[in-house]
Amino acid sequence: MSVLTKIIATLDTMAPADRQIGQFIVDNPDEMLRLSSVALGEQTGRSQSSVVKFAQKLGYPSYQQLKLAVSEAKAQQWQAPPGMVHGSIDRADGYVAVQQKLVAGKLAAMQQTMSVNSEQTMERVLDLLDRAERIHLAGVSASSLVARDFAIKLMKLGRNVLHDSDSHVQLASAASLGTRDVMLAFSHSGTSIETVRIAELAKQRGATVVVISSLRDNPLSAISDIVLHSVSDEDNVRSSSITARDAQLALTDLLFILLVQREDDANDHIHRSEAAVAALKVR
């Protein structure tokens, strides 16, 4: 996971001193790389020890190790394609600028989401889905749309899937889960009360709980057995959770493709599903 992505995702939960240091690093990564711990402390109005402790809280034994991580993050950082603008959409933006910022924001969210989830974690989730007797997908609002999309894909693979947009029905379904079942709970904020309650109930019933949520610590992630992270610049785009939804969809599409690769008869399942639906299309 990129250290810059981690800092951005946790800024709101940091203590004031750490937030000031973190914000400076995010806003001025190139300048930070030229500064000593003493100089960075002077730039942010904090002490050298505060800078060193900030590095340690992020998991780096020294400030030099933090600088190395920032340097690596800069080298790998996603860049908008030439001619494409990436930034906050403003009311005064013209049609072309809105187009470019929207597409660039979507691309950034998907690329960063892919980068923060390790192959090992994805493999663990795939193993759980392979072994699950039943798979319950939970989510409300925009996350419910993502859950429904993934439920349809899993059904095409012949999986026993439970999903309903009504949170009361989701609770009832969660109450029927057992130790051989898996719950996938979607919430970018991780604070949706309905989804948290549904996941809690599934956990009480002995089901394995997989959460798809943001990098920030939140009540839903605290319940989980495994967390997959979605990265989204929702502070800049407040239009119906656009980039959060795209980040979640990118993850579920990846899971679906990897499941198809694992199963020898996956294409047979999909073709039978397509044939059944084809009979309902106008010719």
Structural write-up:
With 283 residues, this protein is an alpha/beta fold. The chain has 14 helices and five strands. The chain has helices spanning 3-10, 16-27, 29-34, 37-44, 48-57, 63-76, 95-116, 119-131, 142-156, 167-174, 193-204, 219-223, 242-262, 266-278; strands at residues 135-138, 161-162, 182-186, 208-213, 226-229. The protein has a five-stranded parallel beta sheet with strand order 2-1-3-4-5, with helices on both faces. Strand 3, helix 11 (193-204) and strand 4 (208-213) form a beta-alpha-beta unit. Helix 4 crosses helix 5 (48-57) and helix 9 (142-156) runs parallel beside helix 13 (242-262). The longest helix has 22 residues, at 95-116. It is globular and about 70 Å long. It starts with a helix and ends in a 5-residue tail after the last helix. Residues 235-240 have low confidence and may be disordered. Residues 125-265 form the SIS domain. Keywords: DNA-binding, Transcription, Transcription regulation.
Could you write a compact summary of the structure shown?
The protein is 59% helix and 7% strand. The protein is built from 14 helices and five strands. A five-stranded parallel sheet has the order 2-1-3-4-5, with helices on both faces.
Characteristic terms for this protein:
globular, 283 residues, alpha/beta, transcription regulation, single chain, RpiR-like
How do the helices and strands line up, and which of them pair or pack?
Layout: H1 3-10, H2 16-27, H3 29-34, H4 37-44, H5 48-57, H6 63-76, H7 95-116, H8 119-131, E1 135-138, H9 142-156, E2 161-162, H10 167-174, E3 182-186, H11 193-204, E4 208-213, H12 219-223, E5 226-229, H13 242-262, H14 266-278
Parallel strand pairs: 1-2, 1-3, 3-4, 4-5
